[in-house]
């Protein structure tokens, strides 16, 4: 059955074979959404470049104007995509972006929008919301007590704490209230996304401790290394070298999880990346308990099942402060192709495309 996925770059058919999907990706037929395109959509005026140059050459100790010009030119010509969150916040302030637009900019460039459990992010967000300036926000943040980042996330910490902090800072009216609230919330600040860990734990528990089939022998518990090898490799080449790869291949391969990376994430030493959440959703098909799932009903058509998965996965990403699926992003396009699977596991559908895409 063919399932139509509509994207800004045209129409993609879910009925495509993995070989055809791989050819579409290999031939660079996706109109990849660029940084400059996003920035110009958020700020369409003609003085975009001049405002950025002025911002990045105006603070003490910053590069001279010529260096700022080169940096901004590289960004706007898409030779480099900024990934430093401080730079992205400075852009947002310089262009007078709203909090929501700054969140979108951060999300596209880093995989995560404004993080309301990060001390800097929550202060910058307040100043953006109240039409403040970057220098004001930066100086105010530096004047606040230092946040002592815990080495691990306490097991008793609510996964909803980020949303609770966001709501509490929305009620602040002035700098005095902002300083008081910030100081009172110091024990809750951290750089790791708790909600993303909540989903990670559910998916990993399902993979490490698979349910026993009725009448069958108990399944063994799997190590993180075994989970990586069994479920997450998906035929992705292990070689680190990216020479000879197309832009699309590089973007899909970038930060593909390996066992060491996954162990560090599970140990709370690193944050949960968006790509890992996408892969875990596909591998488990979001079935993380033995409860009823309407997805399994025969009256659900392939198109309806795809739409349900699309909305569910987007809701999870939004819950974790991550941008929604974008058909103009190669990894997201491949994820959408896998979601459209009708007669085979989603992860198998993705694996087949990856094997074709990276074959000699």
Write the layout of secondary structure elements.
Layout: E1 4-7, E2 10-13, H1 18-26, H2 35-42, H3 48-55, H4 65-76, H5 85-94, H6 99-110, H7 119-129, H8 134-142, H9 161-170, H10 175-184, H11 194-208, H12 224-232, H13 247-253, H14 259-266, H15 274-284, H16 302-319, H17 330-339, H18 346-357
Antiparallel strand pairs: 1-2
Helix pairs in contact: 1-18, 2-6, 3-4, 5-6, 7-8, 11-15, 12-14, 15-17, 17-18
Can you describe this structure?
It is built from 18 helices and two strands. The chain is an all-alpha fold. The model is unreliable at 6-13 (pLDDT under 50). A two-stranded antiparallel sheet has the order 1-2. The chain folds into three domains: 4-32 and 194-211 and 221-357, no CATH class; 35-80, no CATH class; 116-191, no CATH class. Helix content is 52%, strand content 2%. The longest helix is centred in the C-terminal third of the chain and has 18 residues, at 302-319. It is globular, with a radius of gyration of 22 Å. A hairpin with a 2-residue loop joins strand 1 and strand 2.
Order of helices and strands: EEHHHHHHHHHHHHHHHHHH
**Portion in helices:** 40-55%
Mean pLDDT: 86
User: Could you say how many structural domains there are in total?
Assistant: 3
Strand content: under 5%
User: Alpha-carbon distance between the termini?
Assistant: 30 Å
Give unreliable regions as ranges. Answer: 6-13
- Rg, rounded, reads 22 Å
How many H/I helices?
Answer: 18
Could you tell me the number of beta strands? 2
Strand order of the largest sheet: 1-2
The main β sheet shows up as: 2 strands, antiparallel
What characteristic shape results from the CA principal axes? globular
Global structural class = mainly alpha
